[in-house]
Specification:
alpha/beta, TIM Barrel, 13 helices, 12 strands, globular
């Protein structure tokens, strides 16, 4: 799957992930009213509204991008109907040929970690039949329980030819409370990055590993160091746009061949119609605004990379 992702990045010339992190406040009123008219003001109605919102975004942008990243918390808040909307969103995106990165940030040990891996990027056996429950292509994982929490995911990656992105240096302002702490004179995120590279050696694709890393766009100098520590790991870069990251901040995350990183934007794209630059589209044409935001993001990144 890492090969498909790299090929899709080359084909679209857009190292971009659209984060499908819908909030009810993003959904146009007419769309919410239609869903509520059919399902009532219920969890089912909310889940249907966010799925319909996603559907238009995906249809409007699928030809421009290689991948999407649905954040499962935005769906889980609506309980079982929300989780079903997450699965429907994954299936829709895969039907469009997009690579799906499940932003699930799982982190546990032993059989629990293996169960998470099976649910999101692996398979489960039910009697004589085998199922891929959520069927994402990649998922995000938290490494702070150590190798016991990561090795079950790596085993599934090797068996299924799928991938993971390990949290290394996240884009949130308080990430430094732990990730920047010095251990033997070096920041913790560097040690985690070295471990990601070591894990990646166990699960190599053609040029990049199935084991990637998450490094925030808001820390470009740290990205430069981590890029050198993880030369064969694809870096998933959150923090572009709404969190302050710009195209010029992204250069350190890429290799000299222009590959090696893929940049996520969530509300900067899916809620673009609420920004001054795209307000002319109006709420009803939010998907067209999202397409315009993708095109602008692509231009910004390409100009920065030269």
């Amino acid at each position: 799957m890492i090969g498909k992702l790299i090929s899709s990045i080359k084909r679209t010339n857009a190292p971009i992930v659209v984060g499908l992190d819908p909030m009810m406040g993003f959904v146009p009123e007419t769309m919410k009213k239609a869903a509520f008219a059919e399902y009532g003001e219920t969890l089912e109605g909310a889940a249907e509204a966010i799925y319909r919102f996603n559907e238009k975004i995906v249809n409007a942008t699928a030809d421009l991008i290689p991948a999407v990243k649905p954040q499962i918390a935005m769906y889980e808040q609506f309980g079982v109907p929300g989780v079903m909307a997450f699965k429907r969103t994954v299936d829709l995106c895969k039907a469009k040929g997009l690579v799906v990165i499940g932003d699930v940030k799982r982190g546990d040990i032993g059989s629990t970690s293996l169960a998470y891996a099976a649910a999101h990027i692996g398979t489960v056996q039910v009697g004589t039949k085998t199922f891929a429950p959520f069927h994402e292509d990649f998922c995000t994982v938290n490494p702070y329980l150590g190798s016991d929490g990561i090795n079950p995911f790596i085993d599934v990656c090797k068996a299924q030819k799928k991938g993971i992105f390990v949290l290394v240096k996240t884009s949130n302002p308080s990430s430094g409370e732990f990730q920047d702490r010095l251990i033997d004179g070096r920041p913790l995120y560097e040690l985690v990055g070295e471990q990601v590279a070591a894990w990646g050696e166990q699960a190599m694709g053609d040029a990049y590993s199935y084991v990637g890393a998450v490094v925030g766009a808001t820390y470009p100098e740290m990205g430069r160091v981590l890029r050198s520590l993880m030369p064969k790991s694809l870096i998933l870069v959150p923090g572009y746009g709404a969190q302050g990251g710009k195209g010029k901040d992204l250069v350190p995350f890429f290799n000299e061949d222009g590959l090696g990183a893929i940049v996520n934007s969530s509300r900067g794209i899916i809620a673009a119609y609420r920004q001054d630059a795209y307000k002319s589209y109006g709420e009803a044409n939010y998907a067209d605004a999202a397409r315009a935001a993708v095109l602008d993001m692509k231009q910004d990144i390409m100009e920065a990379l030269g």
